[in-house]
Amino acid sequence: MTRKNYSSKLLLGLFVLIVFLGVAVYSAGRVIIQGQTVYGSTDLVGWNMLIAAYTFMALTASGLCLTANFFEVLEIHRFQLLQKRAHFLAISLLVPALGMLSMELGRFDRVIYFILSPNFSSPMWWMGSIYAVYLGLLFFEFWAIHNNYKKIMRATSIITLIFAVAATSILGSIFGVILDKTLWFGSGTPVFFVFSAVVSGLAAMIAGTILTYRLSNQSMSQELQQAIKELSVILTVFLGIALVFTVWRLITVSYARVPDASFVTGSPYGFQFWVLYLVVGLIIPFIILLKAYDKEKTIKKANHLSIAGLMVLIGMYVDKHIFVISGQFNQPFNIPLGTYTSTLTEWGIFLGAIAASIMIYLFGEEKLRLENRVKMKNTKSADTPQRDRYNDVGIV
Amino acid sequence: MKKMTRREFLRYSGLTGLLILSGKGVSLVGLADTLEAGETQVNPSNAKVRYGMFIDLEKCIGCNACTMACIKENQLPEGITPNRVLKMKIGEGDNVREYYQPILCMHCENPVCANVCPVKATYKREDGIVVQDNTKCIGCKYCMQACPYRVRMFNKKPPFSYKKKHPGGVHVGGTVIKCTFCKHRIDAGNISTACCDWCPTGARVFGDLNDPESKISKLIRQRNGVQLQKEKLTEPQVYYGLIGR
């Protein structure tokens, strides 16, 4: 039996992740012992950054699965290379995200009432239920992909795709149905969440794949490079749409002089919006992605793509943070504006959830071989007969 | 014996399925009735009455006696005040006038808090009082977000160790607290709230909105009682007598 040699960088990274996880466990313990007095949320700003972080991670997980299954349903073969990784990455994000959400619930031990006393008129009930089913489907589909059960994969991908869209839009509807919150209310919110999920999912898929190969010192196959390149083109287009969407959002709120809009564009979230979301999260990655190819349209530097992907993910988180928190500031009846400052406990839980996601993913990468290898029609060797499209998919 | 054709088999199996389903339907209806009966049993309330409150802003002096009464009566945890008094201004320039506006749960006819609660911890009783079952609340705070009046409070105390008895039950850490119109008094036959009893100027009147001869109904008519934020479509059951300029 050969013993693997792990690089010192990887071991250091693992140590940092374990430290973050330890901080999260300590923070969760504080919440259980001291209650939510350790959070920065108030009666006026009841939902803190953990809700924003959950929204971000759940949307990214949905986006990963949504995109991968979309390609699967459309039978675009080359993206099957990414299918298994995308599904496992989605599981890696969603499980810690749900754990983090439970820390935001005052009495997480009572979630059994979701089954015992369901309220079908509540978007939150639908969100919880649909995400629970969706997580089960994700595990099931991953199992099918892992064992190469082609018919099950095909059938489940359609169902999971439907559930991914439903879960994402219902998550948006939690905010969208609240008439009292100007920044949240409206039918546009669920649609915006689906769009945001796709952007986050694409960015996570690109960054996750490239960083995995880079950290493990492997080189990507031609097919995989091609798939990543095409994904980054799609992401560029979506970032362009997001820019147009943001500009229109700004125009409409300025035109109608929506009071709550000043929390986003001015104080207190002006810097986060203009710099972290717009510049770091949208404009710079858009430019990086546009300049990522040379005249032959091949990727000049894969690293640039992963950096762009990570920047998009930062932008998407900041967007959710601003959306969730600033939506709660305005108060009726001359009540002073709500205020919110995140606490170290909240950050501890959030970073711990991210660390848990990375660790689960690394475990999958190590033990479950997340790379699907597909023999493309144009790259099949002479001695490999062309079979049906699924027969060419195999875990190598 | 006559052999059954495929068509007959399908017909009979379909009929059998329908019979089983209808039987199941009956049993489900029965189950729903049992649950409903259970809820009514836990919360005895009178369907003929519809409780509400009238608050005369001309009479309110901002003494916060109502706030204190609520805290004492309901043994509220520290920092929780579902019944509070806001300082407001009306008019401009030299004509500006200060006044006080008490605010509490509006016990809406269309309670959006109950609609969004994922586990039915918040519900409306037959007598119009919107109550919160603290043994069910999961502390998601969705009701606090949905309420247009910001009158729901979150008990941030530890979820498993904090318990404080009050006349209507126990305050539990990690759950939402709201005004109950002192339902424990009403259930015991005392049709009044602590805030009304303690108000030194008689600015608050509690009573049956369904009875046109009740004091509250007469006051609402006389003072042209208004509901706050009617545009939110929640049909609040607390009426205000506005101040003159």
Structure overview:
The complex is a heterodimer of chains A (396) and B (245). Chain A is mainly alpha-helical. Chain A has one domain: Up-down Bundle (Formate dehydrogenase/DMSO reductase fold), CATH 1.20.1630. In chain A, 68% of the residues lie in helices and 2% in strands. Chain A has a two-stranded antiparallel ribbon. The longest helix of chain A is centred in the middle third of the chain and has 34 residues. Chain A is globular, with a radius of gyration of 22 Å. Chain A starts with 7 loop residues before the first helix and ends with a strand. In chain A, 46% of the residues are buried. Chain B is an alpha+beta fold and 245 residues long. Chain B folds into 2 domains: 42 residues; 191 residues, Alpha-Beta Plaits. Chain B is 31% helix and 20% strand. Chain B is built from 7 helices and 12 strands. Chain B has a 4-stranded mixed β-sheet with strand order 10-1-12-11. A two-stranded antiparallel sheet of chain B has the order 2-3. In chain B, strand 2 and strand 3 form a beta hairpin. The N and C termini of chain B lie far apart (95 Å). About 10% of the residues of chain B have low confidence. Classes of the chains: A mainly alpha (396), B alpha+beta (245).
